[in-house]
Amino acid sequence: MADEFPPPLDNAEPPLAKVPADIVREIVSSLRCKIDRDRARYLGETWRAQIQLLEPVPPPLPWLLVPRSVGPPVFHCVLSNWRTHRYFLVDSAHTARFFGSYDGNWLFVSLHQKDKHFLLNLERPYLRIDLPNTCLRSFLVPPFEHLQILVEVGIFIVAATFSRQPTEQGCVAAGIIGYRPSSPVEDTWHIGFWKMGNEAPVISQPMNEDLEVQDLLYSRGDEAFLFLTRGEHIREFRQPIFPLPDMKTKVRYFQRRGGEGDGPVLARYLVESRGELLMVVRLGTREPHSPTLAFRVFQQEVRNVINAEGEVEAEHHWAELPALEGRIMFVGRGCSRSYEVAHGYPGKEGIYFLDDRSFYDHQIVFRSRAQRRYHCSDVGKWSGTPPQVRQCIPEYGPSNESSPVWVLP
User: Fold this and answer.
1) Angle formed at CA 199 by CA 196 and CA 203, multiple of 5 degrees
2) Which stretches of 111-212 are assigned E, i.e. beta strand?
3) CA-atom Rg of the chain in angstroms
4) Which runs of E-coded beta strand occur in 321-393?
5) Is 72 exposed, middle or buried (0-12, 13-18, 19+ CB in 10 A)?
6) CB 175 within 8 Å of CB 163
7) Which pTM does this prediction carry?
C-alpha cells in the first residue's frame, strides 16, 4: 500500500496539530477506515493520542476498482465516503479485463480480453495463479450423425468463484464461460468447473433459455455451487464436483413471482445473508448513462404443498423482504457479499452496486481496443428510502479495458 501522507521531511509541525482535543476526538471517532486513521496520525501528537483511545476499526468493506482507458485503475473506499486510496497494481494489469474477485484481495484477470486468464493478489502483487484458457468441445462430423470429435477451443470467462481459498488443497473453481462467436447460437453463457492448476474446465450447457445463467456463488452451507438463471431458477451442483461421475446436479425450479411491472430487470444476483439465500433484483430504465432506479430483495422459501396425486412435495418461492434490516450488501457477478451494520458500520445500510451492463454483450471482448466501451458510470448505493439511488463516484467515461469490480478483503 502506498503511503498517501508521509510525515513532513523538515520536522515542521503539521498545520492541524493545534486543533483542540475535543474536536479531534469527534473527527477521528468518525473514521472507520484503517487507512484514514493511519493518515490522521501524521497530523500531530493530539491526533495520535485520540486515535489511541479509540476502539479498533471494523474489518474493511470491499473497495471499488474502476479501470480507466488512460492511466492505472482507481480504488474507491466506501468506508472513506468513496474517497480514493492508492494501491500498487502491476503494470501489466493496467490494461487488463477484470471479471470478478474473491475474498483475500484476489482479482480475476484477463490480459488479452478473451484469454490469458489468471489470479492476481493485491497484497502479494507478484503472486500469479494461472486459470484455464481453453477447453475440449465435442462436434458432430457430418454426414455421420453419431460420430463426434473433441476439439480444443478458446474460452473467455466473465465471472468465477471458488469453493475455498485458491491456494488451499482441494479448491474447485466454477465460472460463467463464453466461446468465440462463430454463429448466433454462441451468444449464450455456459457453466464451467475446473480444479486449480490450469486444468481445462468441464462445461455444462444451458438446457434452455430460461436456464441460461446470470450469476453464481458457492454455498458453504449446502456445499454446492449455485447458479441463478434468467428464469430465476437455481442450478445446483453439489460437491464433490470431481471426479466427474460423482457430480450431483439438479434444478431448483421457483414459482413465478409477481411485481414484474416495476420496470426492466437490469440484473439478478445471488447473496447469502444471515444463513439464508437471497436474490437481489436490479430494476431500472434503458437510459444509457445511469439506468439503475431501485432494487428488490427476495429470500428463498420452501413450502410443502399437495400435488395432483395427493402427495406432499416441496415448492420453491422467492419471498420479498420488506426492508434491508441492517444489511450492507455489495452486488457483483460471482462476488456478492453481505455485511451487518451492527458489526461496526453505522450509517452504511444499503445495496452497493457497480456498472456491469457489459455482461450482456457477448461480443465486446472480440472488438479492437478502440471499439471496446465498457460502462463505468452506473455506480452507487441504494438505500431503500428517497432518494433511493445515489451515484457515489465521480463521472468516469467508458473504459476500453474492463468494467468496474469489487475488491473483496
Assistant:
1) 105
2) 117-121, 128-130, 134-141, 144-162, 172-179, 190-195, 202-204
3) 23
4) 327-331, 337-340, 350-353, 380-382, 389-391
5) middle
6) no
7) 0.91
The set of cell numbers assigned to 245 is 461421475
In 66-213, alpha helices (H): none
d(CA 156, CA 98): 12
C-alpha cell read off for 297: 430483495
- The percent of the chain in helix, strand and coil, each rounded to the nearest 5, is 15, 40, 45
Please count the other Cβ atoms lying within 10 Å of the Cβ belonging to residue 112: 13
User: How many helices, marked H, and strands, marked E, lie in the chain?
Assistant: 3, 26
174's CB contacts (< 8 A; 6+ apart) are 160, 161, 162, 163, 191, 192, 193, 216, 218, 225, 227, 237, 241
HSE-up of residue 103 (Cα within 13 Å, Cβ side): 11
38 vs 20, 61, 268, 292, CA distance in Å?
Answer: 19, 17, 38, 35
Give the start-end residues of each E strand in 25-121. 63-66, 74-77, 83-85, 97-102, 106-110, 117-121
CA pair distance 140, 40, nearest whole angstrom: 66
Domain boundaries, the chain: 1-57, 88-253, 263-404
221 grid coordinates: 452451507
CB 295 within 8 A of CB 282: yes
Residue pointed to by grid coordinates 450492507: 328
CA neighbor of 316 nearest in space, from 253, 271, 260? 253
Cα gap 153→158, rounded to integer Å = 16
pLDDT tens digits, one per residue of 289-340: 668 999 999 999 999 888 877 788 889 999 999 999 999 999 999 999 999 9
Amino acid letter at 285?
T
pLDDT in tens, 130-148: 999 998 877 777 776 677 7
pLDDT in tens, 42-98: 898 888 999 989 889 999 999 999 998 888 899 999 999 999 998 888 888 888 999
* Most distant pair of Cα atoms in the chain: their distance: 87
Task: Give the SS3 label for residue 192.
Answer: strand
With beta carbons less than 8 A apart as the criterion, state whether 292 and 266 touch: yes
